[in-house]
Amino acid sequence: MQKTPQHEPEFIRKVPDGDSMERDVCATCGFVDYKNPKIVVGSVVTWGEKILLCKRAIEPRIGYWTLPAGYLELHETAEDGAAREAREEACADIEIERLLAVYSIPRISQVQLMFRAKLKHPDIATGPESEAVGLYDWADIPWADLAFPSVGWALRHYFETKDRSDFAPFSNPVDGL
Amino acid sequence: MQKTPQHEPEFIRKVPDGDSMERDVCATCGFVDYKNPKIVVGSVVTWGEKILLCKRAIEPRIGYWTLPAGYLELHETAEDGAAREAREEACADIEIERLLAVYSIPRISQVQLMFRAKLKHPDIATGPESEAVGLYDWADIPWADLAFPSVGWALRHYFETKDRSDFAPFSNPVDGL
Ligand SMILES: [Zn+2]
Ligand SMILES: [Zn+2]
Fold first, then answer.
1. Which one Pfam family would you cite for this protein (chains A, B) (predicted)?
2. Could you tell me if residue B63 is left (phi over 0), alpha (psi between -120 and 50 degrees) or otherwise beta?
3. What is the pLDDT of residues A138-153, one digit of tens each?
């Protein structure tokens, strides 16, 4: 992995060797300023028929409800990242079942990998990024107060397939981009 | 998205606001040097029973066989990225069917989204990154000359499920990390 330049970079636009697109390349040291899409990992976590939701204590969308999810870190598998996010945001100990959906949010260059998971035990608690956490019946989900569109997509996709194990993962709903 | 600093950065280790891990943060301008895992998108592309393979014209693993795959670009959906890679590497016009597998390669901080796809027509040709492209019967796949372990995983996972449409996407084989 390239090191961020330790000097004032002098960027020029050029196609790096072996690449096919113009990038910002430092004329002094050759550093290529690749801007990559980011990977978000998260999960729809259940305990029996109830679904784990977290009320955001941080911006963006502070005070709105979300699923445990966040950026994948370096040197982490997608599954480990989703489990870490559940631990950080809801002190939840989860077991990943399978991939539920892959949502692409090209406007913000984000790909979201959403898993289906189960709580290993029902003990949950607020982490530093949550002002509340709860286990919700389907009928009680606060649809009007969800933090992001993809939270609603993942919940609906979960519900549609909750009694099945074999299905193709969902991508964005047709009306979703 | 943050702009790369236009001056000599003075990095200090600290936990940025709203974050939970130490990062390199520029003491002068606040730039956070996030290092993110990268997303590779690719596909197992078929024409009838034959599978599209590309012989690499570039490092790493020049001269070895691979599936059309590469880094997802900014502002691209995962599916569009996989189709672009097939176009760039094999001049192939493909239709994505579904997600076949998500492989995590934590050692190099990579997540690979591998799709199952069909050629729309059998016209293929070498692109700038390929020294040869071909449509291979299963029995003729050059197993000993595949470029990367995950190429073999995707081929085997494809073959295992080629007559099914409903299945959970694969992740790394248990012996694969
Ligand atoms: Zn430089
Ligand atoms: Zn700075």
1. NUDIX
2. left
3. 999 999 999 999 999 9
